Structures are given as C-alpha cells and as structure tokens.
Amino acid sequence: MSIFGKDIGNNICALITFADGRSPPVIAALEESKLPFGERFKFNNSGLYESNNERERNSLSKIFWEMGIASFKSLFDHLDTLTQRSLQLTTSVLNERMRLEGTVQNLQPKLDAGLMKLDQLNNVITIFEANETIIAANKNFTYKEKKIKMKQYDLPHGQHVTNCIDCTFTCHENCRYADNEKKRKCKTMDTNGNCKVCPDKCFWDRHANTPHIFKLEEVEVTGTYNEMKQKFESAAKEKLTHEQLLDNMRDEIEIMADAIVDMMLVIVDCNEKLAQIALQPSPLTMTDYIDLMIEDEKQQKKSGYMARIESLNVMKKRSRVLVEGKSFLEQSCIVDPKKEGLVTKAVKSAKEVVKNFRKVFGF
User: Fold this and answer.
1) Are strands 212-224 and 142-154 parallel, antiparallel or unpaired?
2) Is the pTM of this model over 0.90?
3) What number of other Cβ atoms are within 10 A of residue 27's Cβ?
4) By CB distance 3.0 to 4.6 Å, which of 47, 131, 145, 209 could disulfide with 64?
5) Are the CB atoms for 39 and 78 separated by under 8 Å?
6) Can you state the angle between helices 242-277 and 350-361, rounded to 10 degrees?
7) DSSP state, 211?
8) Mean per-residue pLDDT pooled into runs of 10, the chain (363 residues)
C-alpha cells in the first residue's frame, strides 16, 4: 500500500476468500490496520475444485459456486463504476521513496563518522580535564586519540563500483555497469543525471568505475596539547587559557551535534513528504530514526559503539523535549544549548546540510 498515491484509495477492493455467508473475521483485522479496503466481496473457492461427477460432488458445492459467481458479478459491476486514476501520484511516491533511500545511503556513513568524531572530541576534553596539572607543567603533553580518515581499498577482480572523481567518494559499491559511459544508468543517479549519493551531487560523467573503493575509518594517532590549543586559537584568532580552550571545544561539540541533527531532519523531512502523498506511509519520527541507529550500533558493535550509543541517547532526549512541547516536525525545532527554551529551525535542503556537514567535520 505504501507505494500507491492517496488518490488510488477509493479504487481498492477487498476480495475475501473462504467467507461463508457471515461477516468475515478478517474485516476486523482490516479495520484495525487502518488500510483502505473500499468495497468488499466474499468468495468461497472450494466450488472451483469440486468434481463434475454427481456422485462425488459435495451437496454444498453448487451453493458455493453460485456464491462465487454472484460475487464476481458484483465485483465487475463495481469496477465499472470506479473512476479511472492516473498513476502519476504513485510515480511521485516511488520517486520520493527512491530519493529517501538515496539520501539515507549518503547520510548514514557520514552520520556514523560524525558520531565517531563527536566522541573523539569528548574523549580529548576528558583527557585534558583529568590532566590539568600535568598540562600546566608540560605544554608538550601528548595523548592517544582516534581520528576519521578516508582510506582506499582495492577491490576483488570482477567487482565494479561507481566512484565520484571530484568528491573522492564511493557512491555505489556493487554497480552492474562497468562501462563509464553507462554510469548514467547507475541506480545512484536521478532523472537529471545527478548523483543522489556523493556529497556534492555531481553529474554522472564525473563518476567512474575504478579498482578501489573509499571508506571512512578510525585510525589511532598521537596528539599534543599544544597542537590542539593552536588549532582552536587559530579559529578564535586569540590566545586561550586552558579553561577557554575547553569551553571552545565544548562549543565545537554543540556545533557538531547540530550538524548531525540537521542530517537527521533531512531524513524525517523526506518521510513527512512521503506521508503527504503515500496511501499507507510509515513515516519515521526523529526518535524512531535515532532508535534505528542505536539498534544498528548494538548489532554491529563496531569500535567505539557504546560511546556512539551514548551520544545518540543524548540526541534522543533532545528530540523528545521538543516533541513533548509541540510537534517536532511541525515546528522543526532543536534545543539551542546556549539559550533557554526552543529555537525555531527550518529544515534545510539535503545538499545544504551535506555541505555544512563537510565544513564542520571535514568529510
């Protein structure tokens, strides 16, 4: 039902089998499901399989047969009364669903990497807070941290991909089209020939089948307090005390969290648009989507998954505050950590969100 447009609703009929005279029990289930089932027609198909031999025929077979014929006549008479409907709206539903899937495919690895980077900065703050005395005595204080880097991996022979040349990004890991001249047919391309997956939504001819793929991964590196301090002083364009550095790092975390929330809002916005045109949509709320991400983290158990789950739970609480106050989607709000109350925030376009995400996170 979720693939059809709402205008198809009145043209749907329920054909109910093994219905012997009385109201079929399945009607209660249909009503409970809220599915549009329009007119209903009862059938008992047992008459179709009865023998033509008089001696072997069940005495009720004729009744079942006549019941079926009457139902078929009623069905065909009803079909003649229905208004023909174009599948244009259904096409819109399918296109929107494809856009949603393409957006999710693009955003999911970025969200994962963003959560990793968020946790990394949190960990560095914890290290700096715990070693304040040592840092005061030794500005060259070093520590271990994990960073997100794009890594290149060779592909096995015979596997084809669609990589964006400009974004250095793998848009489709297993593409059926090995010929670069046919990349427009790749499922990641929209009807205008633009990629739905790569960060800059590049044109199809900026994509190629290469013998490698790109993946964002965590790598452990050694950092120094001075390097981190200089980085934030450069951004602030002033010298920072230890406490000011920590405050600026916490502000950076809030900026990252907002960028991640923006990405989630794009997913929710896609579902909202789908709900407006689909006959039986199943839109995800903000908290639903976060729950799915948490469940995925629990199942995959990749390095640092517990910390990412903790960050997701914080975001879940943030979204719940908004939902309880007023509909999150109607208001498109998030909590501004520096101000009391709610701050209205319009849902941005996917392209705008991805560009801002790259600016904040660097990938």
Assistant:
1) antiparallel
2) no
3) 14
4) 47
5) yes
6) 160
7) S
8) 68 78 76 76 73 63 79 89 74 66 62 75 88 86 84 89 90 88 88 83 92 84 89 89 89 79 70 63 66 84 80 72 41 39 47 62 57
